[in-house]
Please model this.
Amino acid sequence: MATDHRVTLVPVATGFMDKGADFGSPDVKIMHAPRVAMATGEGTSSLGAGEVWHYLERDLQYPVTLINAANLNSIAWHKYDVVILPEGYNYKPLFDKDGAMKKWIQQGGKLIVMENAVSQLVQADWGLSNKKEADEKDGLYDNVRRYENQEKESLQYNNPGSIFKVEVDNSHPLGYGFDKTYFTLKADNNVYEFMENGWNVGVIKKEAQIAGFTGNKAKAQLKDGVLFGEVPVGRGSVVFFADDVLFRNFWESGKLLMANALFMVNSGNAAR
Model:
């Protein structure tokens, strides 16, 4: 059989390990190749969906079923183990707590939510919440501004694209293969409160900016929060990425995050 399938066999004298789990240990999990689907079409970002599609089909050469986002409510959920929601604008109806998607996740399905799709998940109250605004002192003259300074003042909230250092929990499957740091490309001010009943895998702390321009008000917001992690739901999971981890398919370290989300997180509870 090994010859037929061109597999090289390596004989071992024992199943006992000097370090780590023994062969046959319950800590050694059987991984099934997940059946992956992704939302596309009207209501999704062509750039966001295109990056994921390219990564799966070209980089990994892994099959993915593309489903029009408008039809997601009526799909046969049991046919898929992983569903990806790339950046999009009309996902909120899917997050109905009594809907088919929620039941599918509870039975072992895995949902991967990306970029502004995460903010729609937050609005549906699935255990993730927006970070509170940075504290500001009330001032009597805060609204008295010079007309000539309007462009300069608007830049205080601007973040056109900066690199921030993220601390990674590499004991969690989403963080496998990383040291303790991931560098994220942030093009917005989205960061979420630390979860009490979820796994805060990638967190941003104080003074985390490494490169690029970020307005002072935006920078004050981008600290002490979570950017990616896992929300357990029954036997399944929701994995969320606040940032574009596959930006234009050149953000190489983000590809490892995506692979971990697809194949490692909650890999033993596929909805089969």
Observations:
- Residues 46-59 form the longest helix (14 residues).
